[in-house]
Amino acid sequence: MTSSIQKAQKDYSAKWREMSQSRHFPIFHYVPGNWINDPKLFYWQGEYHIFFQHNPNGSFWGTMHWGHTKSRDLVHWEPLPIALTPTPNSCDEDGCFTGDVIEENGRFHILYTSIKDKGEFIQTQSLASSHDLIHWDKSKANPLTIEHPEGYGGCWRDPCVWKEGDDWLMAIGGEKIEEQGGVVFLYSSQDLTNWRYRGELCEGSAEDVKAISETALGAKWYECPDFFPLDGKHVLLTTHAPHTFWQVGKYDNHQFVKEQLGTMDGGGFCSAKTLLDDQGRRIAWGFIWPEWGFIFEQGLKQEEYGFSGVLSLPRKLSVLPDGALGIEPVEELKSLRGEHKHFQNLSVDAQENIERLLLEGITGDALELLIEFEPCGAEVFGVSVRCSREFEEVLDIGFDSQTQKLVDAPLKLNAGEALKLRVYVDHSVIEVFANGRACQTLLTYPEREDAQHIALFAKGGQVKIKSLEVWEMKGIGVTKQG
Ligand code: FRU
User: Fold this and answer.
1) Rounded CA gap, 144 and 160, in Å?
2) Distance CA 5, CA 89 (A)
3) pTM here?
4) Which member of 8, 203, 277, 480 has the lowest number of beta carbons within 10 Å of its beta carbon?
5) Ordered mean pLDDT values, 10 residues apiece, the chain (482 residues)
């Protein structure tokens, strides 16, 4: 092991010991410490690499570096040295923004957006290369000569790169003028340095963004595009902080035409990107926005504990028979399951007021729940987690039959379709997966020590619960590999 890797691991162990003092610290999510946003993913010879936007100098956004970690089992993460650092007096002196990692003939390359002059926010695109994914050399040709076409707005960042025939293709996120919506620019190259503008890969509309989410910022642009084939279709992911949206459609002749559009998560699951592993799985990660409701306050609660932002659990994507995006947690997470309990045939009956049924015999702040509700007429029903015994504190994960939303995530249940929830409770971080096609991420910071209970709830009718499985979840520790 080289000394830079040893140092990164030693530094991380010290940081982890400090962060894990907090009772809100998640134990089976990877938390790099200080600030994280935008993961960038790369699969190589059995290892899942995650690079990410990182400020090593504090738990707030600023001086964007590329942090790095990797895993063999999708569960345990090994911290690695910082991959990219801004170079003083250069085109990236104010930040190495998001981009992509690729391999060609045994050499690895990063294409990223270089930022100079915080005031003017000058965006250019740059290249760095490596023989081992650890040591990166920036190209002397930086910033690369790439056309930002005229007649568009200022956003021009976050390259996504793939091979098509003999060409490298690169998508860059942008915006139309007068806040009319996002656009993705397409470029091609033979050598990764000289790029030719090929036109728009696709354009979006600000109305589309607003129709899906009232909480999305940046309806006018497309950040962090990720573009890939999946199950006979093509998928485009774009980010509108704090959410990522998906579009499933057709790609032909360098044009992408969307057929369906949706959100990857109703909560602060942001900047999702994907990789393809050797089992042919398309796996996505996003970062979980620190207290995303207070975007401009940078996550004050987390900051107090030495971190802001968390890497999400890995989510396997598919295109469903109806053409929408399917999203499931990866199987590997089952390896973290510990003690198990099973419940069946429960029911909660409620009228005007909410009724809750506390599950006796289950407590914990690191749990996985698998719940199947029977189709029912209750107005709202679901599960409450991190509850205190008398419900002074609760976090409700409710499905609203009228609006057909699971918290803020749209979920249209078909006639007679049961709601099936898989809920990961990891201290302050909660990730919910529903019916293979909707997700909701939540953060919670209960004050009471007894906020360790689980309850089922209903309002305006009765709900029956066919089955409920609970597992205690193990922590992933500091640097262990599976
Ligand atoms: C999206 C984003 C990207 C940019 C990066 C900077 O979250 O704004 O467009 O590259 O964050 O950290």
Assistant:
1) 15
2) 27
3) 0.96
4) 480
5) 91 95 95 96 98 94 95 97 98 97 97 90 96 98 96 96 97 92 96 98 84 72 96 96 94 97 94 98 96 58 87 98 98 98 96 95 97 94 98 97 96 96 97 98 94 98 97 87 45
